[in-house]
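Translate structure to sequence.
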């Protein structure tokens, strides 16, 4: 028995790769209709997400449009060195970090609070109405939201300044005041995405076993205690996953909204990596330098994602992988 067991175990180890391949092929044949439906998504990511990764090589070259990527001269880390030595580096790093941090601090917990509070509403019709109006802003484009902000905060006919005048205060050009830019950006991010992200938490809440609440009622627990000891702990895995994703994108601030709202008077607090890449790459046609800055931004986002994932697994035992 002792001599045959290792041979049997070794034989099983040798058969595992083949059996896994056969099992995978069997599952692919069984789910072929679903795989065909998923094929456009795969093609999209291959063409527009993984394919362009090859273009990052220009960050290490002195890219020339006429010579192409392959014909351009290699310069190594020269563009990265120039960027790190540039006086713009620390300003961009500080602005991107603070804007991403404030957005994470406010835009992450608000959907959780909103979902938990909405779950406690007993009026079904009122609950559906509030939920519908809350996620409508998510369907508005960045251009429309930015235009609304500019109109509302206009110093001449904006709604906010009209209200200030009505109570005897002076009108203020908010978008030209550096101290107001981050507040405007973060608050509009919360308003635009809170309702849509709350749907994720409402779905997690809906999967909680109702018998837990019934047992808590029998034990005399209040609604606040049920929220604290049942609802929040039950959706904690979802919260951790969303926190990892949000933290990973903290440095990935889209240039569109900032570009539409900022101006030379607010550059000192509003200029971030993405807007800098836009100016250097598209406006000044310095493609290699812009690619180096963009690659650095992506690496920072990747590091943040890995760190947050490790912290999440140690704190709650849940992570993206």
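Result:
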């Amino acid at each position: 028995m002792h001599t045959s067991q290792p041979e049997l175990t070794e034989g099983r180890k040798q058969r595992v790769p083949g059996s896994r391949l056969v099992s995978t092929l069997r599952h692919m044949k069984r789910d072929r209709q679903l795989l065909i439906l998923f094929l456009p998504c795969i093609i999209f990511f291959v063409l527009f997400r993984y394919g362009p990764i090859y273009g990052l090589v220009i960050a290490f070259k002195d890219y020339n449009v006429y010579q192409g990527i392959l014909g351009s001269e290699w310069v190594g880390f020269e563009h990265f060195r120039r960027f790190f030595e540039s006086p713009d580096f620390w300003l961009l790093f500080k602005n991107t970090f603070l804007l991403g941090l404030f957005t994470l601090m406010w835009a992450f917990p608000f959907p959780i609070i909103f979902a938990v509070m909405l779950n406690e509403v007993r009026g079904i019709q009122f609950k559906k109405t509030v939920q519908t109006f809350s996620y409508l802003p998510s369907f508005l484009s960045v251009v429309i939201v930015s235009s609304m902000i500019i109109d509302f905060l206009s110093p001449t006919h904006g709604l906010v300044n009209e209200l200030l005048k009505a109570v005897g205060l002076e009108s203020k050009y908010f978008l030209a005041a550096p101290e107001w830019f981050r507040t405007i950006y973060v608050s509009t991010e919360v308003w635009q995405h809170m309702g849509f992200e709350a749907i994720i938490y409402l779905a997690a809440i809906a999967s909680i076993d109702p018998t837990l609440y019934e047992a808590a009622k029998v034990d005399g627990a209040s609604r606040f205690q049920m929220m604290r000891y049942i609802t929040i702990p039950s959706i904690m895995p979802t919260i951790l996953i969303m926190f990892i994703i949000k933290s990973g994108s903290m440095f990935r601030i889209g240039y569109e909204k900032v570009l539409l709202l900022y101006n030379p008077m607010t550059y000192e607090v509003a200029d971030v990596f993405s807007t800098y890449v836009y100016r250097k790459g598209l406006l000044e046609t310095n493609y290699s330098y812009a690619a180096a800055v963009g690659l650095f931004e992506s690496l920072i986002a990747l590091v943040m994602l890995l760190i947050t994932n490790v912290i999440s697994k140690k704190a709650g035992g849940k992570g993206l992988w």
